[in-house]
Amino acid sequence: MKKVVVTREVFKETIDFLVDHFEVVPNQEDRLFDQQELFDRISDAEGIQTAGSDLVNDKFLDAAPQLKIIANTAVGYNNIDVQACSRRGVVVTNTPGVLDECVADYAIGLMISASRRIGEGERYLRAGQWKAMYLKQMLGLDINGATLGLIGFGRIGQAIARRAKGFGMRVLYHTRSRVSESVERQLKATQVDKRHLLQQSDVVMLILPYAKDTHHLIGEQELQLMKSKSVLVNIARGGIVDDKALIKALKQKTIFAAGLDVYEGEPQLDPEFLELENVVLSPHIGSASEPTRRAMAMTAAKNLVAFLANGDKPINLVRPN
Ligand code: GLV
């Protein structure tokens, strides 16, 4: 039987499904293996179900000479050197489609939380500082009627726009290619250039993949273009924002607040973020609802089975750029 390694804990039904088709090496204790232990585990694997936090590079691929497929349990795949995989004939798959609505919900949560200072209010209350209610207490920004600027307008971006319509928000978007007029009409979304989006939006939201050309897409100059009463939300990937520049903007209050689910170098993050009141911080949990994470794990496993057990085309093939 072909051997498949699952690098991190998944739901039981995923292991049960894989076991019907493969010899499976699971990690249901969710141990964090050191590099050598991991490399020993994958040495004769033909398929690997990776987590978004696993780094798949030439060294990793050298350790798995039998490898035919990497099924990443995430829609993003910047943790994988797809070119290196392709050079070795290793197929890469991801999990698009099953997490769009869940991530869109979370994006709205971060937007409201940052705009209305929910985290700050809770810290204040828990610290026993709330002595009275008063008119000017913790004044935030309105979401209703505000302008939302989405950088990235794929499935998740469009799911966010659908929600924003319900808040009476005006939606601007910036992408490389324009979506169809019918989608624009349906979502009441207008394509604009990046500069215009940054200058006009009350909330700038990032929902695009990380790649070399999106590295520090939001840096000091871009932050300077944003309104002083605006909010930046990053639910995409660390590295798209220059975190140092963002910390400076938050400290100097050249923007109002930020809501962040991702960071440069995560799970480490710049400790200066922790000192700031005007930022909402979460540990990359945008897709973390139970049904969604179950669906993501099963999608990755189905890709393994389709390709490695059934000899079919993988369902969610990622192509090298
Ligand atoms: C989560 O960040 C994902 O890419 O699925």
Account of the protein in words:
With 321 residues, the protein is an alpha/beta fold. It has two domains: 3-98 and 290-309, 3-Layer(aba) Sandwich (Rossmann fold); 100-281, Rossmann fold. Helix content is 36%, strand content 15%. It is built from twelve helices and twelve strands. It has helices spanning 12-19, 35-42, 58-62, 82-87, 100-116, 118-126, 155-166, 181-187, 194-200, 220-225, 243-251, 290-309; strands spanning 3-6, 23-25, 47-51, 69-73, 91-93, 147-151, 170-174, 189-191, 203-206, 231-234, 257-260, 279-281. The strands form two sheets. The chain has a seven-stranded parallel sheet with strand order 8-7-6-9-10-11-12, with helices on both faces. A five-stranded parallel sheet has the order 2-1-3-4-5. α11 links the parallel β10 and β11. α1 (12-19) packs parallel to α12 and α5 crosses α7. The model has no long low-confidence stretch (mean pLDDT 97). Bound molecules: glyoxylic acid (GLV).
